[in-house]
Amino acid sequence: MQRRTRPAVEIYDTTLRDGSQGEGINFSVMDKLRIAEKLDAFGVHYIEGGWPGSNPKDIEFFAQAQRRKFRKARLAAFGSTRRKGVAVDRDPQVRLLIEAGTPVVTIYGKTSLLHVRDVLGCTPEENLSMIADTVRYLKDHGKFVIYDAEHCFDGYKLDPAYATATWQAAEQAGADLVVLCDTNGGCLPGELAAITQTAVARLRCRVGIHTHDDIGLGVANALAAVEAGATQVQGTINGYGERTGNCNLISAIPSIAFKMNRPCLPKGRLRRLREVSQFVDEIANLRPNPRQPWVGTSAFAHKGGTHVNAVQKFAASYEHIDPALVGNERNVLVSDLAGRSNLVMKARELGFRLTNDMPELKPLLALIKQREHEGYEYEAAPASLALLIRGALEHKRDLLFTVDMYHVSMRRDARDSICEATVKVRVGSTVHHTVAEGDGPVNALDGALRAALIRSFPQLSKVMLTDYKVRILNAGAGTAAKTRVLIESTDGRREWGTVGVSENIIEASLQALADSIEYALLRR
């Protein structure tokens, strides 16, 4: 018997419109164009560019987008049905949808009688006319029309007959898709799937799904709708959106492809998933979520010794998929919970030859656990760990430089507080003695140390500090509390983390800074 092929699922991205409504998200026109081009290369089917009737920025975006060629994706303008009491050909918002020049237009309309009466303030019959008139008008102008049924599930639960009538009004007027929207994000997968199944049975056009994440089920609800017959999923990259966000396409896409075995992107594009996620975070000026499923740095991280031992023998024992399929990689963590397998795998990852039978392994593992007990944290500081492993394997810590002396002070003039750092650094038989000012004591110390060492190591001009975190480890000790400093650095091509621990925050910072510079020199 021939196996029935399950239909493909289209991906409709609304990061540039719905996603930009999230708190702290603000895209410029150029940002939107760059993201649109990235999404097109990624292989999504539709890119919703914005609402040309709502603001000048979106009008400019569509004007510039018309001059660009998209290889795969179809650009969509978003708007609403005509206003009550206004002929569709006289509604300025509808006219702007036509003028946006996109092949696709997506409009939303009311499904819930509660919204029809209390928000629109019109009759149920007028709302049906508003839906049908707008869809028909857009079709007459050659547009591919997607109808978003707003508050679809809440409206259906309130009055199933009227909700169905709104969907059918859009379909009979020529809508190419009717998309069911869980606008308030409060539905459970079971009820959402049942209503979706009803819509699929009663409509001749294709059905899509648009979910929000207000109760943490945005992705689960989208997948439930696909199981029930929906063939388009709307969402945003990284789940950006109003309130708690939209369906996260970064989770939905691989779940559809790998877990439901439904084609949704061109072959091979899923290996760009992590890259796309981080690209959009970067444009939005947000730090990537390390715990994001599929693409986060913790998504395939292993810390427990028994877990790592099993993964070393059989990856699928604690990994639901090969991380490379979504552009990610395995991350073995070393901490006070680590076993020998953790350390061996991590050492190999860092470029060291370490095996289970080497005599250095046991004392090195004991040293790491002792230092973790003292407050050091190597999960976020692999560069400091690499230096520790190097010292153990070579039975020495052959430092490239030594800080003989440092002094940090602060003075205040009539206008500002000024921090000044002095360091004396020894490189072989050469001594460098420098002074630098900075915005704070650590900034000044970093400047002085770098100015001293750059004389012997000019390549350090490319190394810079990108992040600095401080954590108080034993707050009960008051001002004598131990401090952990984590530093991230880059040379423009790669990034690395280092750690320092001391009761003196300046001393802890110096440890982390010195490790960062030494690692940069050794890596070179």
Please write out the topology.
Blueprint: E1 10-13, H1 29-42, E2 46-50, H2 56-65, E3 74-80, H3 92-99, E4 104-110, H4 113-120, H5 124-140, E5 144-150, H6 152-158, H7 160-172, E6 177-182, H8 189-202, E7 206-211, H9 218-227, E8 232-235, H10 249-259, H11 273-283, E9 301-302, H12 305-313, E10 331-332, H13 340-349, H14 361-374, H15 382-393, E11 402-412, E12 417-427, E13 430-438, H16 441-453, E14 464-472, E15 483-490, E16 495-502, H17 505-523
Parallel strand pairs: 1-2, 1-8, 2-3, 3-4, 4-5, 5-6, 6-7, 7-8, 9-10
Antiparallel strand pairs: 11-12, 12-13, 14-15, 15-16
Helix pairs in contact: 1-2, 1-11, 5-7, 6-7, 8-9, 9-10, 12-13, 15-17, 16-17
Question: Can you characterise this structure?
Answer:
This protein has 524 residues and is α/β, with parallel strands linked by helices. The chain folds into 4 domains: 10-283, Aldolase class I (TIM Barrel), CATH 3.20.20.70; 301-370, no CATH class; 375-398 and 463-524, Double Stranded RNA Binding Domain (2-Layer Sandwich), CATH 3.30.160; 401-456, Double Stranded RNA Binding Domain (2-Layer Sandwich). 38% of the residues lie in helices and 20% in strands. The chain is built from 17 helices and 16 strands. It has helices at residues 29-42, 56-65, 92-99, 113-120, 124-140, 152-158, 160-172, 189-202, 218-227, 249-259, 273-283, 305-313, 340-349, 361-374, 382-393, 441-453, 505-523, and strands spanning 10-13, 46-50, 74-80, 104-110, 144-150, 177-182, 206-211, 232-235, 301-302, 331-332, 402-412, 417-427, 430-438, 464-472, 483-490, 495-502. An 8-stranded parallel beta barrel has the order 1-2-3-4-5-6-7-8, surrounded by 10 helices. Strands 11-12-13 form a 3-stranded antiparallel beta sheet, with helices on one face. Strands 14-15-16 form a 3-stranded antiparallel beta sheet. β12 and β13 (430-438) form a beta hairpin. α1 (29-42) crosses α2, α5 (124-140) packs parallel to α7 and α16 (441-453) packs parallel to α17 (505-523). It starts with 9 loop residues before the first strand and ends with a helix. The model has no long low-confidence stretch (mean pLDDT 87).
